[in-house]
User: What shape does this take?
Amino acid sequence: MRIDCATQLVDRARFHYPFLEGAPQQMQRDFTIHALGAILSRNRYEGGVVLALLDDPAETDWLLALSLEHSAILAVMGHTTDARDLDRWQRHPRFRGVRHRYGPGSAAWISELGARGLRCDLEIDPAQLPLLSPASHVALAHTAGACYRQPQLDAWAAAVESWPGMIKIDGLINGAGEGKWSGAAYRPWIDHLMQCAGPARLMYGSDWPRCMHSGIWKESLAAFTQALGPRTMDVRSWMLGENAARHYGIGSAAVEG
Assistant: This one.
């Protein structure tokens, strides 16, 4: 089972997206479920985990409604720090949890999510990792805050060694600049994760459409596979979908054509 564990959708008539301000021309458009479904189907993916981009409950409401109409959306990760939103969303079959930026009050919120049986995609600075209590429902987003600048590799590597949970390898190429990504640049970071976490705790996501700052969906995947290097089919299967299915509680599903 192949699952892209980090995708988003954009409807500019519905919402304002700050990440599009100053973005390249190729990003100044909508990114629809039909486009995402076509990409995933073409590349033999069963579907994706769709992440809310905005701190606006209306966006998560919209994504959850879409998920009932489009099988390419296997799960939705919302965005809120209001338990009343969780009360409402937990009644939905595709809702799995929320994405969250670590800061003051995060410990209580993360605990609340765990008590409800919900997942948390956590954005965190590597220097803050020692403050974070291990929790099986938390997945560190954006490769545990990796910046892919060689002088900072050692500090990042030491920080992630203490984390015993899931790590999402998403957004690899976002900061590279259009056409400037290189799989070799990410290899030391991926190698370290393979050594300290192992393939059973890692899952890949394209971060489409935000990856289009630097390249298309296939280039995001290529950066990961080139950085990963030769691996067994089992290892690739775990990281390209099976781990995400297990973590987010996703069963078998089929993508629309």
Remarks:
- Residues 97 and 118 are 5 Å apart (CA to CA).
